Backbone:
């Protein structure tokens, strides 16, 4: 309970959640604890940069600190990255650089990539973008074992950096062998969320489910990371077949014209809200704080706009994985979220609500409507039905939902849900839920109480403790 109280007090009723990417080479227990205390809700581990033993080591460190923090594992998906670049090297505008999937081909400015057929599938004249489009190149010549590209703007070529070809469909499989192994790993280790990268259509989701169904006791959720136009165009069908999505603006911004990106972000958040599914906005949210102690004004506004759109969570990548100011960035994000949420009703005149037709969503809407009408400070749920709590969250209540969970995996899943503060309880008695709020609510605060029979009543908090 001490962790819950400290977390809730420091975040001042913050409803939008924070993902923090954790690197295996920056996962000291003291650092992790300080990051969670600063407001990070979910630990995000990226398998593109670490193997299973390193991932398990980080997971065990997190679990040793607290079992309340959910763990997300990010599979690589059908992506192309630079490979075997032992020493970073600089390229300038006008230089030539050769990309190849043939590891036997070497030479000056020859860069190996992770997909063997890459150089065979990219034609002359196409754009090849390096590391979220930080370097742009144009394919000038097809060689027997590579493609020679002219550099349009300079930069540093490093290992394991992404490559995007906006106008070419690369014939990569949805899951690499490493991905398949990691999905088995997730199921065996009860990882709370699997985020699959570069999801293009519902078939990519089915390939993951074909593996997870071999583990009938596994309850982890699958989130689709949308990073290209094909995925965006199939957002509705993708969401119908998974538990939520991540708007991954880095690679997406390299795949589509910049002017389309804000529209795509808002449409994906809207579709997630419509279907009552989880939604995360990601990439370069506080990019400047990787090196600087203060954000840009545009970054602060970016956080606020994502909150106003109604996203469940916003993520940090380099800011926490290797940045110079991870705690400052986390605290800053929490402050901006909390303040924006307080002003949300003044600024939003239309919010997409779920269009799901079911008894659970009908009941959830009635509960949230009543809570908003009564101006309740909190909703107390003695939880027997996690789906009802998620549905209530989907209506973006003005009050915070205190959800008592009978098992730890439900509790961790709900840590992603907007406005939900989840914790484990031993019984479905509402008084046990109330105990978790005694240090953060006042006796006179009005609360909505949902008992185990889904009966709703309005109480003063002081009457429950």
Residues:
């Amino acid at each position: 309970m001490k962790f819950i109280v400290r977390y809730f007090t420091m975040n001042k009723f913050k409803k939008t959640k924070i993902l923090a990417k954790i690197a295996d080479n920056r996962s000291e227990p003291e650092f992790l604890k300080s990051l969670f205390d600063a407001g990070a809700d979910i630990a995000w581990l990226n398998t593109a940069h670490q193997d299973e033993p390193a991932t398990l080591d980080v997971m065990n460190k997190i679990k040793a600190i607290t079992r309340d923090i959910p763990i997300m594992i990010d599979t690589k998906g059908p992506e192309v990255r630079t490979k075997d670049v032992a020493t970073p090297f600089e390229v300038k505008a006008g230089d030539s650089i050769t990309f190849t999937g043939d590891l036997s081909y070497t030479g000056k400015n020859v860069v190996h990539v992770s997909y063997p057929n890459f150089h065979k599938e990219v034609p002359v004249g196409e754009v090849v973008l390096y590391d979220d489009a930080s370097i742009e190149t144009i394919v000038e010549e097809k060689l027997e074992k590579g493609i020679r590209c002219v550099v349009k703007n300079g930069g540093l070529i490093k290992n394991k950096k992404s490559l995007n070809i906006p106008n070419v469909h690369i014939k990569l499989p949805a899951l690499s062998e490493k991905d398949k192994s990691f999905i088995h790993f997730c199921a065996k280790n009860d990882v709370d969320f699997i985020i699959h990268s570069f999801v293009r259509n519902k078939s990519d989701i089915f390939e993951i489910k074909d593996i997870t169904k071999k583990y009938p006791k596994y309850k982890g959720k699958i989130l689709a990371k949308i990073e290209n136009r094909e995925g965006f165009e199939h957002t509705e069908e993708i969401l119908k077949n998974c538990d939520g999505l991540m708007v991954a603006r880095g690679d997406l911004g390299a795949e589509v014209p910049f002017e389309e990106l804000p529209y795509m972000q808002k449409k994906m958040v809207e579709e997630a809200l419509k279907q009552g599914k989880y939604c995360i906005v990601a990439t370069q949210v506080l990019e400047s704080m990787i090196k600087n102690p203060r954000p840009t004004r545009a970054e602060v506004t970016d956080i606020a706009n994502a909150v106003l759109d109604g996203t469940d969570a916003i993520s940090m990548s380099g800011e926490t994985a290797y940045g110079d100011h991870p705690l400052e960035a986390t605290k800053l994000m929490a402050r901006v979220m909390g303040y924006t949420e307080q002003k949300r009703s003044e600024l939003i005149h239309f919010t997409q609500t779920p269009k799901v037709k079911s008894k659970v969503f009908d009941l959830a809407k009635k509960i949230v409507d009543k809570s908003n009408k009564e101006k309740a400070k909190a909703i107390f749920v003695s939880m027997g039905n996690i789906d009802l709590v998620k549905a209530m969250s989907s209506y973006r209540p003005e009050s915070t939902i205190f959800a008592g969970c009978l098992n730890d995996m439900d509790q961790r899943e709900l840590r992603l849900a907007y406005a939900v503060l989840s914790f484990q309880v031993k019984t479905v008695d509402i008084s046990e839920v109330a105990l978790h709020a005694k240090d953060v609510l006042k006796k006179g605060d009005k609360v909505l109480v949902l008992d185990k029979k889904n009966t709703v009543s309005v109480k003063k908090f002081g009457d429950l403790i």
